[in-house]
Specification:
single chain; 413 residues; mainly beta; five-stranded antiparallel β-sheet; globular; disordered N terminus
Length: 413
């Protein structure tokens, strides 16, 4: 297994948010701005580094990298309590004991229309795609949809969440594998008689990107967009790419942008992208900008069809540094995200970016919360945040809290 710069798989995999449309929640809040809704305690999971999703009843779902009955990680559900906080139920303990299970779930979950959950794991072998199906008696049954293989025809080490198209096909990325060992984009298609078939949609070759990270996103025409941490033309410091279906099962890739670490650019884009209503793309880079602490960027399509990059914010440390999770957009066009470090206590922040009222294309950043690392608050948010009811932001921290194994938090506007 190869290592990316500043990326430690399994023990510190960077879990990337899959943007979901969240249901209205009924979690009650104390008057304080930030509230820890749940403290992980090892038995119920530890070190949640993936994002959260809601079901239609306002319950939260997520994964933990480790902990649980076999210390291989968990899938959990949080149910709001009437007097504040949440009750956790472990839906599944990964065991990693045979070919029918895996270990260390990485990234966010997604639901299908029938209420089944899908995700990926990185541990034991080269990673898996799994499905959890409710059994009707309060339990969940796991099925492995794909075991990644270490060969030239498959990817290895899936490191972001999945997305699903209208036909029920799953799409994701692997950091390695493929003919050049530079990573892949894959598709899993359900078969009529059961089982799933994997198709490698694209194999990266270095110049067109290397080591894709984070989940993918569709546009309205069914094209896929994502990022690679390395590769690209020029400096080789990461790319934004687009994949277009040709109609015969093949996909054509084009590189929309290659990062170069100039004064107005970042590098190493770990996280997924999001679209706004005008078709602009937004994302983050872990490094680069004026202080080399990372950036928030926008990609806009020009009249000639090319894409132009604009740095919206350069982190300076006090307002956070090392953003490694995707952004969330509210209806007013404001952006929200997290940084893994920086802030008042150097243990991460939740931030907001607002277009300036004076116009001119400027953006103003606000730190909504600096994690305290004081035994009650969590710290080191690897994943981004999602909206619930009343404009409340929800997220996870990989460390901290009462027991030191991470938290689920809510942030009231």
């Amino acid at each position: 297994m190869r290592m990316l710069p500043c990326l430690v798989l399994l023990s510190a995999i960077l879990f990337l948010l899959v943007t979901e449309t969240s249901a209205q929640t009924v979690i009650n809040f104390n008057p304080s701005t930030e509230e820890v809704l749940y403290n992980f305690n090892m038995q119920g999971g530890s070190n949640p580094q993936g994002g959260l999703i809601f079901d239609g009843s306002g319950h939260l779902y997520g994964t933990t990298l480790a902990g649980g009955s076999m210390n291989c990680g968990t899938v959990f559900e949080l149910t709001p309590k009437a007097n504040g906080g949440s009750v956790e139920q472990v839906l599944f303990n990964f065991k990693g004991q045979n070919d029918n299970d895996s270990c260390h779930p990485i990234g966010s979950l997604i639901f299908d229309s029938a209420g089944n959950l899908y995700g990926v794991t990185a541990g034991l072998g080269y990673g898996t795609v799994f499905e959890l199906t409710p059994d009707g008696q309060g339990g969940w049954t796991e099925q492995l949809l794909h075991n990644f293989m270490h060969d030239f025809h498959d990817g290895e080490n899936p490191n972001g969440g999945l997305i699903m198209d209208a036909a029920g096909n799953l799409y994701g990325t692997t950091a390695y594998g493929g003919s050049d060992e530079s990573g892949t984009v894959f598709e899993l298609t359900p078969q009529a008689g059961g089982g799933w078939t994997e198709t490698i949609v694209h194999q990266f070759m270095g110049n067109d990107g290397q080591n894709p990270s984070g989940s993918l996103v569709f546009d309205a025409k069914g094209n896929l967009y994502g990022t690679t941490i390395l590769g690209g033309f020029g400096a080789g410091l990461g790319t934004v790419f687009e994949l277009n279906p040709s109609g015969n099962g093949a996909w054509a890739e084009q590189q929309l942008y290659s990062f170069d670490n100039s004064a107005k650019d970042g590098y190493y884009p770990y996280a997924n992208l999001i679209f706004d209503g005008s078709g602009n793309l937004y994302g983050v880079t872990k490094y680069g900008g004026r202080d080399d602490f990372g950036t928030v960027f926008e990609l806009s399509r020009n009249s000639n069809g090319n894409w132009a990059q604009r740095m919206l914010h350069s982190f300076n440390g006090a307002d956070g540094y090392y953003p490694v999770a995707g952004l969330t957009l509210d209806p007013a066009g404001n952006l929200y995200g997290t940084t893994y470090q920086g802030g008042a206590y150097n243990t991460g922040v939740v931030f907001e970016l607002q277009p300036t009222a004076t116009g001119g294309g400027g953006w103003a950043e606000s730190v909504l919360h600096s994690f305290a690392n004081d035994g009650t608050d969590g710290y080191h948010p690897y994943a981004g945040v999602i909206f619930g009811g009343s404009g409340i932001l929800f997220g996870t921290t990989a460390d901290g809290g009462t027991y030191g194994y991470g938290t689920v938090f809510g942030l009231k506007p």
